[in-house]
Structure formats: C-alpha cells, structure tokens
Amino acid sequence: MTIQRVNSKWAKTLVLLKSDYLRQYIPLTKLFSRETVFQMLNEYGMIYVKPINGTFGKGVIRVERTIASNRSYKYQQGTDIHYYASFGDLYNMLLRQKKNRKYIVQKGIHLLRHQKRRFDIRVMVQKNLHGEWEATGIIGRLAHPAKIVTNYHSGGTPLPIDTLMSDHASSHELAIYKNRLQKLSITIASQLAAAYPNLKEIGVDIAIDHKLHPWILEVNTRPDLQIFRKLSDQNVFHKMYRYAIAYGRYKR
Ligand SMILES: Nc1ncnc2c1ncn2[C@@H]1O[C@H](COP(=O)(O)OP(=O)(O)O)[C@@H](O)[C@H]1O
Ligand SMILES: [Mg+2]
C-alpha cells in the first residue's frame, strides 16, 4: 500500500474548510488574482502569497500595505525587499515572480517573536502501531533574522517550543497549550484522512499570533523528520522513525 501524498495547498485547505470546527483556525485563503490580492491587502494590511505546490519556503512572498504615501506597498521574498507607490506596480512584480505557476493568497499572521526573530510551530502526527493518529512531536522554527519564512531549508533554526514560548507563556500555560496544539493537529489529520484514506503522516505548520490564537498555515503530507533530531530528547525522533518504518515510508 502506498502512502498518500497531497501537494496542492489549495486542495488541502478546501478539505479542512469543510470542518466547522477547524474553520476558526484557518487564515482566509483565496486563489491568486488581481482582485483577491487587492481586497485581502485592503482588508488585512499584510498577506502571504504562496505557490500552491511549493515547499521549503521557496517562492513565498510577504506583502504589506504601509502608511508612507510614496512607498505604499512593501514586497519581500527571501531577503529581497521592494517598495512600490502603486498597486499596479506591486501587482506586476507579483506576476513576474509567479510566472505560470498557481498561487494562493493568505491572510498574513503576525508571528510571535523570540529575540526579535519570528517563529512558528511544526506538529507531527502519525499513524501509530495500532493505526490510530498520534501526535509524535512538536518543535518550533525560528526564522533567519532577515527572512519572512521559518523553514529549515530557508535558513530557519529548529528549537524546542519551550525555549521559543518562554517569553509568551508560563510553563504551566505552555503545557496546556502544547496539548491543545496536539489535539488540534490530530483533528486535522482525521479531517484530511476522510478525503485521503491512505494518509499516514502529516506535519502541521502553525502560526501563533499575539493573542496566542493558533493559525494553520499549511499541512505537509511529506513532513521532514530530521528536524526533530535537533531536540535533546532523541526518543522523539526514534519513535517517529519507528512508526514511519511500520507504515512503509522507509525500508526495514
Ligand atoms: N499566512 C501566513 N502568515 C504568516 N507567515 C506565513 C504565512 N504563510 C506562510 N508563512 C511563513 O512562511 C513559511 C512557509 O510557508 P508554507 O505555507 O508553510 O509553505 P512551504 O510549503 O514553502 O513550507 C511558514 O512556515 C511561515 O513561516
Ligand atoms: Mg511549510
């Protein structure tokens, strides 16, 4: 039996939106068009524009509306920053980057910071040896100081969530909060598995805003296990690997 992989961020978002419960955790997401970029920028002031089939933070763009009249729009991709006076100029730049690829537009979440750098959370959920969904790992990812993505492959640093959240929650609050993120991620796995029955593992990217509201940025169906090796507790990675072997991701 093969493990189900789903690349399209758009298809996965549509499946999650079928759940009334999950909807509150999904930032508004639309297919890329001149209208959706314009409207969402006006509505939210900051948006992320992302390739539907992207990975590793590649091609991810952050756009902000600013108050400076001659620099009304701020564009950032990688460490590349541009300012535009008009929406038309900004939009032309987006089209040049997009080329013929499909993109989505998503409400931008102002991520929590640790030592001035943005971070988000990755939760790993796998089918365990009894065929039940189990949250097997949770880790934070601290963005490179000059970048707008947290991905390891884009210069982000995997760190324990306790380290990153220490400025934002007490250890008691954090224990409860981690539990909540794990339960949320298991619900996401069940919801996706209803549409994709051969799903065995997911890695959920979760943004946390200043009210500590969790936002589902994307769900990976081919999640990287290696980042969990960075945790001091090696049992976390070993269990993940054991489960992954059991459902056939790796050869025995
Ligand atoms: N809506 C958003 N608000 C804030 N940050 C975002 C948003 N979408 C993506 N990001 C940042 O960009 C990173 C990469 O985006 P993601 O959707 O996970 O695509 P990829 O498949 O390239 O990992 C995220 O981990 C997060 O740091
Ligand atoms: Mg991601």
From TrEMBL:
<dbReference type="InterPro" id="IPR026838">
    <property type="entry name" value="YheC/D"/>
</dbReference>
<dbReference type="Pfam" id="PF14398">
    <property type="entry name" value="ATPgrasp_YheCD"/>
</dbReference>
<protein>
    <submittedName>
        <fullName>Glutathione synthase/RimK-type ligase-like ATP-grasp enzyme</fullName>
    </submittedName>
</protein>
